[in-house]
Amino acid sequence: MTSLDKPTTETVDAEDSEQDVRAVTEAALFEAFGGLRGMIETVLPGLLFVTIFTINKDLHWSAIAALAVSLVLVVVRLVKRDTVKHAFSGVFGVAFGVVFAMMTGNAKNFYLPGMLYTLGLALAYIITTLAGVPLIGLILGPVFKENLSWRTRNPGRKTAYAKASWAWGLILLAKCAILFPLYWWANTAQLGWVLVALKIPPFLLAVWLTWVFLAKAPAPIDVFAEMEAEEQAEKERKAAATAEGRHRRDA
Question: Which InterPro entries match (predicted)?
Answer without folding.
Answer: UCP010219 (IPR016566)
